[in-house]
Amino acid sequence: MRPNRAIANSSLAFIDVMSCGLGAVIMLLVLVDFDFIITEQQEEPEPVVNETLINQSMLEQKNTLMAAKQKKNMAIEKIISDLSNAMLDLNKDKIKFDQVKKNPVEVSRESSQDKAATGELIGLSVEGRRILVAFDTSASMSNEKLIDIILGISDTSGQRLAAGSKWIQAKRILMWLLLNAPESSEIHILGYSEKVKALASGWRSKQDVLATTGSLINNLSPHGGTSLESLVRHIKELSPQPTHVYIITDGLPTMAGSKSFGLKKLKDCFSLSSKKRYVSGECRVALFNSAVGLLQNNSSFVVNIILLPLEGDPKAAPLYWKWANQTEGILFSPAQGWPPK
User: How far from 20 is each of 14, 24, 27, 31, 34, CA to CA, in Å?
Assistant: First the structure.
């Protein structure tokens, strides 16, 4: 009986061991799966991180918009400041021009300390040791439109031509040139239409010219045709010669200054129409080229042209520009309101 009991005890012990082992394996598998699930849940991103990124992006956009708005406000403030300064400069020029009528000498002293900058900004500056200013006083200088010029000529008193808007501007330009000339320069002023007339006799200082020609310029009136040849011949006879020439005009010449002008068959340039003599566009070009040709071989001065507008004279600008460019000068076509009143 003892042997049989021993076998039974041994079998039970093996089953227990196997059962414990199986239970341990099952528990190990359960623990491993649970730990894996927990690990995956911990590695998922939390929604708080996304909110932080969104808030940071919105803050950056807000800062960018604020910076752009601040930059725009600064640009607007600069534009307002520049406009204010420009208005102050224009007001100073107006005061200076009004004063020159009352006391030209005193104004000339002030202008040496505070020269107008408008000309320098557009490329026109007054310079030279001996400055000749040639002022076109023909009838066309009164107005821009031909109908206004014709109506002005019909007024025999000359008051209508003298009141023309272009003529008033031309006289302001003449005064601007005198005011902005260097203090050390010698100045000579010529008025020319059909003939040449000296507005200031000989080469004179800037102070003398301003003191004696202010009232003369104010009383000038436009009349007659334009003879560029007469002006050129007068300049050639000057002694000493100018270093710089400033011509205030509005178009090509309309007449010759002498019979020996050098044009072939000059009479062919004139025709009769409705009992009035007129000059064709081609003849005006020929008159211009012949006049300028008188100076090309024996002149060394700089020619600057201030060209006012004139209806029906399209070839004037390129021809005057070519002349000025050959002498290293400039052609300047001023706006209607320049220089300021």
Answer: 10, 6, 10, 16, 21
Cα 243 to Cα 107: distance, rounded to the nearest angstrom: 25
Write out the two tokens for 324. 């000025």
How far apart, in whole angstroms, are the C-alpha atoms of residue 191 and residue 134?
6
Phi, psi torsion values for 276, nearest 5 degrees = -130, 140
What residues contact residue 99 under an 8 Å CB cut-off, 6+ apart? 106, 107
pLDDT tens digits, residue range 225-259?
A: 999 999 999 999 999 999 999 999 999 998 876 65
Quick one: which H or E segment has residue 278? strand 276-279
Mean pLDDT of the chain: 78
Give the separation between CA 170 and CA 136, rounded to whole angstroms.
Answer: 9
The half-sphere exposure of 91 on its side-chain side, counting CA atoms within 13 A, is: 6
pLDDT at 28: 59
Q: Which two tokens stand for residue 91?
A: 């007001």
pLDDT at 92 over 90: no
For residue 248, how many C-alpha atoms fall within 13 Å in the half-sphere facing its CB? 28
